[in-house]
């Protein structure tokens, strides 16, 4: 039960991505967001439900998250799925990600890895870095699908270019090890640096170990003589 509730809470976070803290006009999406941030979940649900029923995709996604986590309403995965789908069908990538997660975990719907991947793909193709990372991990590990190194590299690269620190770290490892892609230490260092710059402490440690493992010639070729 705790794992299910944790999954639901994770879905709810999608509702607050890229949202400002300004109060906004009464009845606006921002007013709902402001209420939720103050802990007035009932008011947030009331505002977002009105907007969602009028076809506002952001409000539909937010409302879905509230139903998934049981904030301001009783937990209801069926309604969460309904509102995630409504927003996803309007092209909202956060909603597509949420719907994919519900299918992946079997929350309010029969578990279906194929449907999960399809919704993740829609979100990923819309540029949603979290979905790109999830797809990369699926293809890299062969989770419910045949492992595909090329697709894994494609989606890790897309997420890394979008600034996802975890994807940057994983891409550095792929280049370091020649896993699904030609070994390229220059690219490995580039992505380790990017991940470290995004606050990933493990990237800094792994970069240091990689540099320590190189002989003098390799360091010179990579411009690391003074590293």
From TrEMBL:
Signal peptide location: 1-23
Residue ranges annotated as coiled coil are none
Q: Could you confirm whether the keyword Kinase appears in this record?
A: no
The keyword Lipid metabolism belongs to this UniProt entry's keyword annotation: no
Query: What InterPro entries does UniProt report for this protein, alphabetically?
Result: Sel1-like, Sel1_AlgK, TPR-like_helical_dom_sf
| Membrane-traversing stretches | none
Which Gene3D superfamilies does this chain map to? Tetratricopeptide repeat domain
Arranged from A to Z, the UniProt key words for this protein are: Signal
Q: What is this protein called?
A: Sel1 repeat family protein
The source organism is Ferruginivarius sediminum
């Amino acid at each position: 039960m705790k794992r299910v509730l944790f999954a639901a809470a994770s879905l709810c976070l999608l509702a607050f991505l890229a949202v400002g803290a300004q109060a906004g006009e009464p009845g606006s999406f921002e007013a709902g967001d402001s209420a939720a941030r103050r802990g007035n979940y009932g008011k947030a649900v009331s505002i977002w439900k009105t907007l969602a029923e009028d076809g506002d995709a952001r409000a539909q996604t937010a409302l879905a998250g509230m139903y998934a986590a049981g904030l301001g309403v009783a937990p209801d995965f069926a309604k969460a799925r309904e509102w995630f789908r409504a927003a996803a069908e309007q092209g909202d990538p956060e909603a597509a990600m949420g719907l994919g997660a519900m299918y992946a975990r079997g929350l309010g719907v029969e578990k279906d890895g194929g449907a999960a991947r399809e919704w993740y793909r829609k979100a990923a193709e819309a540029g949603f870095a979290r979905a790109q990372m999830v797809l990369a991990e699926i293809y890299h590990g062969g989770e419910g699908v045949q492992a595909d190194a090329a697709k894994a590299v494609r989606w890790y690269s897309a997420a890394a270019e979008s600034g996802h620190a975890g994807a940057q770290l994983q891409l550095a490892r792929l280049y370091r090890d020649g896993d699904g892609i030609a070994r390229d230490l220059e690219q490995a260092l580039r992505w380790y640096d990017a991940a470290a710059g995004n606050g990933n402490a493990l990237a800094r440690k792994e970069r240091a170990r990689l540099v320590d493992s190189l002989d003098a010639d390799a360091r010179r070729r990579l411009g690391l003589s003074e590293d």
